[in-house]
Design a protein that fits this description.
Largest sheet: 5 strands, antiparallel
Helix content: 25-40%
Number of strands: 10
Number of helices: 5
Strand order of the largest sheet: 1-2-3-4-5
Length: 164
């Protein structure tokens, strides 16, 4: 995917993710006055909305690669979380975040990201109703450990599981 973000100096407020293979373009604007997330495919626009997921045992989680975690500890904590979810899939890269925004999956968990890997996806997921933070629940706009969830309660459960 092609990622473009606009940061207002404090946080990313506009994100665009273009997926040439599928012909989809995801756009998210997240400011105090406007929250919009759209997927454009051809001439059709679809308003994005995350889905509710109450429990880790019901969650579908994605990550780019099971060997792409920054440290062995990160990989171990991810594996422990993965064992608590209903299903884990790999290979989604930036498209996993778009799948959260579309309500198709529930979690994306990664580490070792750079700012350019995540900044565009933050406004897209947040404007669709999701949450994107680091593994401690803080700011992730500069990369590192990232967790994105479509449901705030599920996000809190996943953060707690990764901290255990």
């Amino acid at each position: 995917g092609v990622l473009i973000a606009a940061n207002d100096g404090e946080r990313p407020v506009i994100g665009i993710m273009d997926q040439p293979f599928t012909g989809e373009r995801y756009v998210g604007v997240s400011t105090d006055s406007l929250m919009t997330a759209l997927c454009q495919k051809g001439e059709r626009e679809v308003r994005l909305q995350t889905r509710r997921c109450d429990a880790l045992t019901d969650a579908v989680m994605c990550s780019t690669d099971p060997t792409a975690f920054a440290t062995e500890d990160d990989a171990s904590r991810f594996t422990a979380l993965s064992q608590r979810t209903r299903l884990t899939r790999y290979g989604t890269d930036c498209y996993g975040y778009a799948m959260i925004a579309r309500g198709q999956i529930d979690l994306v968990v990664e580490s070792g990201l750079q700012a350019y890997d995540i900044q565009a996806m933050i406004p897209i997921v947040e404007a669709a109703g999701g949450v994107v933070t680091n593994w401690q629940g803080g700011d992730c706009q500069n990369g590192g450990q990232v967790i994105a969830a479509g449901d705030a309660g599920l996000h809190a459960s996943a953060v707690a599981a990764l901290s255990a």
